[in-house]
Amino acid sequence: MLELPRTIHDAVIAHARRDHPDECCGVLPGIDGRVTRIVEMQNAERSPTGFSWESGEVLALHRDMDDRDEEMLVVYHSHTMTEAAPSRTDVRFAVGATGPDVHWLIVSTREEATTEVRSFLIAADGEVSEEEVRLVDG
Q: Nearest-CA neighbor of 36 among 63, 84, 62, 69?
């Protein structure tokens, strides 16, 4: 289960809506398994069907997390035309770049009136399992 502060959940959705029709992307770092903040990243692809990060931005993020004694807990991004579920590209990215302990939060912005937010764990072998998202105050 992914516990997420309501304010951060709402900020992720706002980022996804703001960047639509392109996919948004970012990271939710934390300490001791608790998400502490949102870091909006630039989608280097500027695309409605995919995202990637600039290597310099990733390096700066890791240095900042190290300075704060944080770890990468969640990678988030949006899907602008499909449901909030990992694509094959997402699974390859997760297996190659983030590792199995990182949660994948996906926001679907395909419908203007509703927002679908789901979280997944992606194992080293590419197996995807959905998990509950629990919103907490604070």
A: 69
Alpha helices of the chain — where are they, by DSSP H? Answer: 6-19, 55-67, 88-93
Parallel/antiparallel/unpaired status of strands 128-131 and 133-136: unpaired
**pLDDT > 80? residue 13:** yes
Residue 100 clears pLDDT 80, i.e. is over it:
no
pLDDT band at residue 105 using 50, 70 and 90 as cut-offs: very high
DSSP 3-state of 38: coil
Residue entry with tokens 């399992």? 129
Identify the architecture of domain 2-136 in CATH.
3-Layer(aba) Sandwich (3.40)
CA-closest candidate to residue 61, choices 45, 79, 77, 75: 75
What residue ranges do the domains of the chain occupy? 2-136
pTM: 0.95
